[in-house]
Amino acid sequence: MMSRFLSHDQTKADLTEYLAQKALDYNKDSSQLIITSAAGHTRSNKAVGQFPHNNHEEADTLMINLGVAATAHSSRSVEMTFFSPDTDVLVLLIANYDVLPKNTSISMTSGTPHIKPIWTALGPAKAKALPALHAFSGTDNTCRFARIGKLT
User: Fold this and answer.
1) Which of 14, 36, 107, 142 has the greatest number of CB atoms lying within 10 Å of its CB?
2) C-beta separation of 133 from 143 below 8 A
3) Is residue 83 classed exposed, middle or buried when 0-12, 13-18 and 19+ CB atoms within 10 A define those classes?
4) CB neighbours of residue 79 within 10 Å
5) Contact present, 96 and 129 (Cβ < 8 Å)
6) Directed axis angle between helix 59-73 and helix 87-95, to 10°?
7) What is the DSSP letter of 142?
8) How far is CA 140 from CA 15, 33, 39, 67, 113, in A?
9) Which pLDDT value is given to residue 96?
10) What pLDDT, in 10s, does the model give residues 18-46?
11) How does 132-150 read in b/e, with b if 16+ C-beta sit within 10 Å?
12) Domain boundaries defined on the chain
């Protein structure tokens, strides 16, 4: 019965919207900026202006776009932490670090690396090129590139 509950698209959409609103309600007095996005509407627990309407199907790019939008409403001196176990998000954060807060990090299963040291080591040009390389060599559906396989 429960497995069928979440197999319905409208149920998933309603649950996502409900959880997004509850997260904002729970954090209404928090000092942290909490941003949620559900059903194409992005909201936050702070008055940071309007977020653009979105129709992203990929959560990875949506997270980065919302981070950039939140940065535009605040300053680059705030601390921003993304929560994702996905290396795609890490790669996108590195590539877009120049428009994100200086103190940006990502909380992953393996730890919470800060983006600035990685971006600095690569340099702006290599950081911007990283998603293209990752598309060939690091995605879950690419077995090998130039006879080199992904380490698992």
Assistant:
1) 36
2) no
3) exposed
4) 12
5) no
6) 40
7) -
8) 28, 32, 27, 24, 21
9) 95
10) 988 898 899 888 877 787 777 777 778 87
11) eebeeebeeeeeeeeeeee
12) 1-55, 57-152
User: Three-state SS for 90?
Assistant: helix
Q: What is the pLDDT of residues 86-98, one digit of tens each?
A: 888 899 999 999 9
Tokens 């040009």, residue?
Answer: 125
Which three-class secondary structure state does DSSP give residue 108? Answer: strand
pLDDT digits (tens, 9 = 90+) for 98-144: 999 999 998 888 889 999 999 999 999 999 999 988 877 765 555 55
- What count of Cα atoms within 13 Å lies in the side-chain half-sphere of residue 105? 11
Q: Distance between CA 49 and CA 141 in Å, rounded? A: 39
